[in-house]
Amino acid sequence: MDKLYIKGGTRLEGEVRASGAKNSALKMLAASLLADGPVIIENVPHLRDITTMIEILGSLGVEVVIDEKMSIEIHANTIKSYTATYDLVKTMRASFLVLGPLLAHFGQAVVSLPGGCAIGPRPVDQHLRGLEALGAKIEMSEGYVRASVAGRLQATKFRFDFSTVGGTEHIMMAATLAEGQTVLENCAREPEITDLAECLNAMGADIVGQGTDTITINGVASLQGCKRRVIADRVEAATFLIAAAATGGRVKVKEACAEHLEIVLDKLTEAGAEITVTEDGIELDMKGRRPKAVSLVTAPYPAFPTDLQAQMMVMNSIAEGAANVKETIFENRFMHVHEINRMGANIRLEENNTLAIVEGVESLQAAPVMANDLRASISLVIAGMVAQGDTTVERIYHIDRGYEQVEEKLRSLGANIERIQSR
Ligand code: EPU
User: What is the rounded CA–CA span in Å between residue 190 and residue 212?
Assistant: First the structure.
């Protein structure tokens, strides 16, 4: 397995481009199953999770054409199978989202239930309740969800029990081909949901209210092909900004969208960074200063994203002062804490491991470290860049799931980082 080797102590400086958003592109790939014509998705990041979704589409017999610029063309009407197998779904939970589009377009789908996950149990009860509310017949057997509907799905009024990103996207996709007007309440409002809704509208769907907690979908009989460009990855972009803040550096992330990162930019400003939003991106200048510790609570958008909690924890670990970091989305998203403490941080967990109390220390020391989740793993890379000495981060296949060309991009900002390939 590949590792990253990092020589710490360099300030990040320079310009880097944000890739297309993984969590938007994955859903657009699933949504392409709804269309009768070819769907072209541009600015797709070259990542392992994207490859997994393409493999799933391929396993259904769907023709997928990829060009050298990662523009992906999908022809759903070449489909030959309606089954997404355990082998593929277990490697990436987002693949479960092919269920609704398959069912809505072809009347049937058999999709493996995703298992547990390093960051929490992550059930799919809201997805299944929503599909049932649309008239789907759902049966479970041998670890698979078997869904069917005679004719079209039927529009409904459905309220999610709590904010769920995947649940909102899943039911919104399925409802596009339902008969009548569906109203979804208590929806998640993440920018990736809006991006997906706009992609569906480009395919001929009639969706309004995306980005608010009530989404209305007027069902249509069929959807056509379309061409869409994925928005910039707000989590990747902010990861570079936080890394710049933690190293006292100055970085511009081109194509990053400030509107999607309001609270994050506020927190970085509170930490002492100077933020400049330009037409083509976001620039952060820490002017060589040590950051000030900033407290935060993760919660659904527009609040602070859980996907940036680990990165901010590293910045806080070497900041001036103390901060409380509260995680409210996932049960087990503090795995990095034990690893950062091994590097000399002073973080203690309280309240049943949902609250981290970080006392900033002057510096971290290098150590061999690893994590079992994408965002925890990248936070260890930031810790390695901040630390004195040489750090190796193991199990970096997690990073490859969500950060495109991570070492090339960080090297372009001056980081001393190398991939050690396993033989
Ligand atoms: N939940 C349920 N039942 C459901 C659905 C969700 O109990 O039917 C729970 C989850 O277990 C979790 C909470 O509700 O505790 C929120 O989960 P949500 O459905 O909002 O998350 P998701 O759709 O599974 C997406 C992103 C995650 C990101 C979360 C929260 C994708 C592919 N994944 O997951 O991204 O952390 O929203 O913003 O879009 C990542 O990119 O590293 C990542 C984990």
Answer: 9
pLDDT, tens only, 214-271: 999 999 999 999 999 999 999 999 999 999 999 999 999 999 999 999 999 999 999 9
User: Residue 378 corresponds to which tokens in the numbers above?
Assistant: 């990248």
Please report the atom of ligand 1 found closest to the CA of residue 169: 23
Q: Which residues contact 241 (CB under 8 A, 6 or more apart)?
A: 251, 253, 256, 264, 265, 268, 273, 282, 284
Q: Which atom of ligand 1 is nearest to the CA of 120?
A: 11
pLDDT tens per residue, range 44-72: 999 999 999 999 999 999 999 999 989 99
Ligand 1, atom 35, lies closest to the CA of 307
- List the residue whose alpha carbon is closest to atom 22 of ligand 1: 166
The two structure tokens encoding residue 46: 């070259």
DSSP annotation string for 292-318: BP--EEB-STTSB-GGGHHHHHHHHHT
Close Cβ partners of 125 (under 8 Å, ≥ 6 residues apart): none
The CA-based dihedral angle spanning residues 304, 309, 314, 315, taken in that order and rounded to the nearest 10 degrees? -10
pTM equals: 0.98
Ligand 1 atom with least separation from CA of 301: 38
Within its chain, how far is the Cα of 245 from the centroid?
A: 22
CA of 93 to the centre of ligand 1 (A): 9
CB under 8 Å to 184, separation ≥6 — which residues? Answer: 130, 158, 159, 160, 168, 171, 172, 175, 214, 215, 216, 217
CA of 120 to the centre of ligand 1 (A): 10
